[in-house]
Write a structure and sequence with these properties.
Elements lengths: L18 H13 L13 H11 L6 H4 L4 E5 L2 E4 L4 E4 L2 H4 L8 H13 L11 H13 L2 H4 L2 E5 L4 H16 L4 E4 L8 H5 L10 E3 L13 H17 L10 E4 L2 E2 L5 E2 L2 H13 L4 E4 L23 E4 L11 E5 L18 H16 L2 H22 L3 E7 L2 E6 L23 H13 L2 E2 L1 E3 L5 E4 L7 H25 L2
């Protein structure tokens, strides 16, 4: 696919043929705001970006790093108003399990719209809602599905995380929560309090094991064992300063924390620790759910059954939807607690039902596992070639490439534990790789503790040919950055 293939009606450079007409049309639209998308090439993307910068806050995240104006999208591909086509490996931060505008999702939404069904019904029972919950329960870990309740929340994953915390606090009568370093559970107050960047003592923060930057300087099984022992010690030491908690919240793969998969044995250890002490275990599957990691739910890799699952992003089939699924004995029946007006999104439920059914019927989780292994192997070979890649990791189609300073001071693991040495994180190189990817028609995200991890979240429907194109463009971008870095050295 050509990186700069023009959209119909534009010149080969992707510019609008009549700039003056486009500007006039933009002015007309400002005077009479129409609920329509201007056709590609009729509104210069520079004008749209300029107005966004003038009207929206400096806190813009993706828009600042990815200065494009999408006007059409299908599957992995986005067409921009500048006439370029991009391969989207951000997927709405993992929201688009089936990519953009998948036919089964569009058909499901159209059916609801054409049926005359109400679009907003609070938490009233509807056939659309019933179909969604039925399909959801088909996918859940059996030992949870057999004794589960579902609660719809506000439209975002952070609402579901807040609802989970409210639930376990009400059920146990305890206030404290256990969380982990590097976590990312949302942007509202309660969710932020249990996230890795929290500065207030809203939770007891425990070490999350990882190989490359192990908090104990060990890595591997040894690092995971130390992390588990530390958790057990805090819970059982009467002088630890940590009282019996209301629950423990954990991500099976930390995405915002740097795409770090939790070791399966460590997850099983957490399950035993919490079960033995009657502590509800909350699995945050907002990023990892619906086949993303190579299993329908990431907890399936370790074989554990959590007490609560936090779900959003892909669960709504590209539309806003958030909910929690939990053991029925935690259902204390409180009225009006963390529900919200928009917890009956009929279109999102219809899109979610279609997405869940399509992923399940077509074995897309298994395909994500196969493709993810292939991508990790290819990127590991790239890491051997370029010292600016410190680590390649992930699970399924949730992949991270950590960029490091190739000339930075190395830090060896203690006593020969783990594999290799670490170098200082380099957010500058990561941002440079993202820019080079974009110039080649590839959209990637950034994350990690220091924003030094290039993140790949392609849709589960990505083809073999598209996978090759993604890897080629990413490899070219890394090479370009490495060459530029080499020229800067004296």
């Amino acid at each position: 696919m050509a990186v700069t293939e023009p959209v119909r009606g534009e010149t080969s450079e992707g510019r609008v043929a009549d700039e003056g007409a486009a500007v006039q049309e933009a002015a007309d639209e400002e005077e009479t705001p129409a609920l329509r998308v201007p056709p590609p090439g009729r509104l210069a993307h520079e004008n749209v970006l300029r107005r966004q910068a003038a009207r929206e806050p400096a806190a813009r995240t993706y828009a600042r790093a990815l200065p494009i104006v999408p006007v059409r999208a299908r599957g992995l591909t986005i067409e921009g108003a500048d006439g370029r086509r991009y391969l989207d490996c951000l997927s709405g931060a993992g929201t688009l399990a089936l990519g953009h505008n998948h036919p089964v999702v569009l058909e499901a939404v159209r059916k609801v719209l054409d049926s005359g069904a109400p679009l907003q019904v609070l938490d009233l029972a509807t056939p659309v809602r019933d179909a969604f919950v039925t399909e959801l329960f088909h996918t859940l870990p059996p030992r949870l599905a057999d004794h589960a309740r579902v609660r719809f929340c506000g439209p975002a994953g952070t609402d579901a995380a807040e609802a989970a915390l409210t639930l376990v606090r009400a059920a146990t009568g305890r206030p404290g929560v256990l969380a982990f370093t590097g976590a990312g559970h949302g942007m509202t107050a309660g969710s932020l309090a249990v996230s890795g960047g929290a500065t207030d003592a809203g939770a007891t923060v425990l070490p999350y094991p990882q190989d490359y930057r192990c908090p104990f300087g060990v890595g591997g099984e040894g690092g995971a064992e130390l992390a588990a022992r530390w958790t057990e010690s805090l819970l059982d030491d009467p002088r630890s300063g940590v009282g019996p908690p209301a629950g423990m919240i954990v991500e099976p793969v930390q995405d915002e924390g740097g795409v770090i998969p939790a070791p399966d044995a460590w997850m099983r250890r957490l399950r035993r620790l919490t079960a033995d002490r009657s502590i509800p275990l909350i699995a945050d599957e907002v990023q990892t759910g619906v086949g993303r990691t190579g299993a329908f739910w990431a907890v399936e890799h370790s074989g554990i059954t959590p007490d609560v699952m936090v779900l959003s992003k892909a669960i709504g089939g590209s539309l806003p939807l958030a909910l929690i699924v939990y053991r029925d004995d935690l259902d204390v029946g409180e009225q009006g607690v963390h529900a919200g007006t928009f917890h009956g999104n009929q279109l999102a439920m219809a899109a979610g039902t279609a997405t869940l059914a399509h992923v399940r019927a077509n074995g897309l989780a298994g395909r994500a596992a196969t493709l993810g292994d292939r991508i990790l192997r290819e990127l590991s070979c790239l890491a051997e070639e370029f010292r600016c890649i410190g680590d390649v990791r992930g699970r399924g189609l949730m992949i991270g490439v950590e960029m490091v300073d190739p000339e930075g001071e190395t830090e060896e693991k203690w006593a020969g534990h783990g594999a290799g040495a670490t170098r200082p994180a380099s957010p500058e190189l990561a941002a440079a790789v993202q820019r080079e990817c974009l110039s080649r028609g590839l959209i990637v995200g950034l994350g990690g503790r220091h924003a030094s991890v290039v993140r790949l979240l392609p849709p589960l429907t990505i083809t073999d040919e598209q996978t090759v194109a993604v890897l080629d463009r990413l490899s070219d971008a890394v090479r370009a950055v490495a060459r530029a870095r080499a020229k800067e050295r004296p």
